[in-house]
């Protein structure tokens, strides 16, 4: 009789412990996912803010700056007077190393 009760209580304890572990794991996963999403968004905002600030301070985009942007973790598309600015199609001649762009107040 005690053995039967012992087995039932052991099973009950195991089920309750498993349930608690599952609930706590799900809660931790939810909290950590939300925190990671928020940190990723804040990092993106900071990166884009520094990129835009750097680009606004310059009257010209150098070939080396465009290469650095191309190697970053973001994909950046540039337009010049409504036309896509294709960095990969630029030749390496001296005339194409520095491209002068007019600053637009609409940006």
What is the structure about, briefly put?
By secondary structure, the protein is mostly helical. The protein is built from two helices and four strands.
Distance linking N and C termini: 81 Å
Shape estimate: rod-shaped
What is the helical fraction, as a range of percent? 55-70%
| Major sheet summary line | 2 strands, antiparallel
How many individual β-strands? 4
- Contiguous uncertain segments of 5+ residues: 90-107
Q: How much strand content do the residues show?
A: 5-15%
Secondary structure tally, helices: 2
Q: Give the integer mean of the pLDDT values.
A: 76
| Estimated radius of gyration | 29 Å
Secondary-structure element order, N to C: HEHEEE
The computed structural class is mainly alpha
Q: What does this molecule look like?
A:
The chain starts with a helix and ends in a 7-residue tail after the last strand. It is rod-shaped. It is mainly alpha-helical and 107 residues long. The protein has a two-stranded antiparallel ribbon. The chain contains 2 helices and 4 strands; from the N terminus they run H-E-H-E-E-E.
Describe the SSE topology.
Elements: H1 2-56, E1 60-62, H2 63-70, E2 78-80, E3 83-85, E4 98-100
Antiparallel strand pairs: 1-4, 2-3
Q: What would the keywords be for this entry?
A:
mainly alpha; 107 residues; two-stranded antiparallel ribbon; rod-shaped; two-stranded antiparallel sheet; disordered C terminus
């Amino acid at each position: 009789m005690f053995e039967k009760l012992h087995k039932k209580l052991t099973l009950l304890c195991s089920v309750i412990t498993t349930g608690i572990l599952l609930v706590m794991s799900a809660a931790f996963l939810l909290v950590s996912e939300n925190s990671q999403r928020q940190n990723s968004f804040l990092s993106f905002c900071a990166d884009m803010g520094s990129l835009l600030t750097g680009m606004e301070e310059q009257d010209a985009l150098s070939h080396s700056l465009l290469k650095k942007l191309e190697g970053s973790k973001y994909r950046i598309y540039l337009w010049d007077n409504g036309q896509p600015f294709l960095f990969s199609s630029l030749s390496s001649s001296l005339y194409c190393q520095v491209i002068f762009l007019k600053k637009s107040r609409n940006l």
